Amino acid sequence: MRTIDLRPGPDGHAAPVTDVAFRPDGSRLATASYDGTVLLWDVRDPAAPAPLTRLHHRRLVNAVRWNPVRPDVLATASADKTVAVWRVPENPDDDRPELLTVLARHLDDVNAVAWMPDGERLICVSEDGRATLWNTRTGAFAGEAGAHAAHCMMVSVGPGGLIATVGEDGLVAVTDPDRPGRSAERRCPASVEGCAWSHSGTTLAITRDDGVAELLAPDLTVIRAVTVARTAARAVAWAEDDSMFAVGAYDGCLHVFDADGRRLHQVRDARMWPRSVAVAGDRVAVGSFWNGPHVLDLTTAAPLAEPSAPTHGPNAMAVLDGELLVGCDSGTVVAFDPDADDTAAGARVMPVSDSPVLSLTAANGQFYAGTYAGIVHRCNAGGELLAVTDPLGAPVPSLCRTRDLLVAGTYNGALVGLDPAALTETGRGEPHDGSVKSLVPLGDGFASAATDRTVAAGGLYDRTVLWEHGNLVNAVAVLGGRAVATASRDHTVRVGRVRAADGGEGWEVVRGATLLGPDESVKCVALLGDPESPVVLAGSYDFGLYRWRTDEEGAGLRSGRLVDEFRQGVSCMAPLDERRVAVAGWDGQILVVELDPDGEVRVSRRFDLDALAREACRRTWAVAG
Prior knowledge:
This protein is mostly beta strands. The chain contains two helices and 56 strands.
């Protein structure tokens, strides 16, 4: 397994902050990041967090938790399928952090960890649906602590040792490894993303994908339900005296409620990524799309500290009038000509939003950008804002322009039809039961791929499921209106030739094959060449770019050939024409890959997104000066 190499700067992370955790005494804050590191901050002065030392995993880090008994011990959970336990000295300048043990038994990303009250045992939960119990003093596996039928998202341990786990299957489960008969289960109508026991252990707060937070008794009876937002409620944390709880939601806000469910504050900052929330004393920390955490006063919601710099991770690409557009975590769109002799000289940075750009599509001399804030922007080629939507109720990870309609796919599964000029909503189609990750034109309509594992085709209202993967589907690609390919977290790529069904209603798959991908999630896919026997290109979370030739006998029984490697996972692709595709990695590298006359693919050009953005900003400042 290759290790992330994003080279973060001394003052923060090189990618968004995924999790935050205060040490019990509140003097230290640990932040985890997509850059594969954990950064420890001195937050004794909450207005001036000072970075102290950095810990490293091989893949992105999902979670961090301090030991409740030993303040110098920290557990970190990663997409490299491991949990590391560290001894972290008070002054890292005098004493280096020490790796005490590595816990490795899960088959997929470890999403969260929680310490048992004894400070020796640790619970780990994973995308593989399992919850495992470990003795961190010996490093020994101590057994299963529960299981879910889908991704297990979060775990919390109460002061009496009750373990709560929640998952995408809607299951809330409470168990006690020391008293096996003490257990309860409850099924929710939506995926459950977060959970946290109150400090008294009398109330479990859970956050659901339908925007509802519930307060539950230990036997999981409902004390009260609180509507947090129109989109997923993701994370929750209690005040130390249990008088308040804070919820992070995918509307980009931090919501603070009193224990009776009355809303006290709603804080919106487009730089915040509220998938993680932590409380210590009168302070609350929130994750960020920028290079460090947000710290706020819990009582007043006033900001105390903010991250210092944006990150430019690429999330989406599109082509407009010969330029490649790249939508970034910073809310900017970087535009450049991939065929120019001096690409940097013509590169432009267009500030589109103060929220990350998650999706892009372009047509008729203009482009559309979907954002984490749930708003779609229409801009001309120069980046001038022409129109915006009302908030769509959830982040917009996918956009597609059909003949007379702009379609937006959201985190909550909605397919929203928009007037391409005014960006007014014209209708909502048949939704997916999960985030719509990818949309591409197909015939007079479009193909969609979602976390409900399905790939569908058709118009806004009449849609046909083409096939289903064994796990969520990250991307769909179309070539020549006949060939369709999809990339999935189940480590496979599926490719098929499709046609309109008899009578013109719906679609049918004429021929299909499953291609074996790498041993990690396949993130993006493209098709090149002849639609009857296309060359398939796919990028993975294992940092690799792979190709398959579908004209080779037995292609479905072989892994793809490695074309190139990045320093982080491969993020997105955009066809330049039928024989060329642009490929972006989260390390900021962008490749142009082309199909040669012999049917092989090769990398013809390489670009560094950060370098292009810096040069474009330098020229802008020079002109302004």
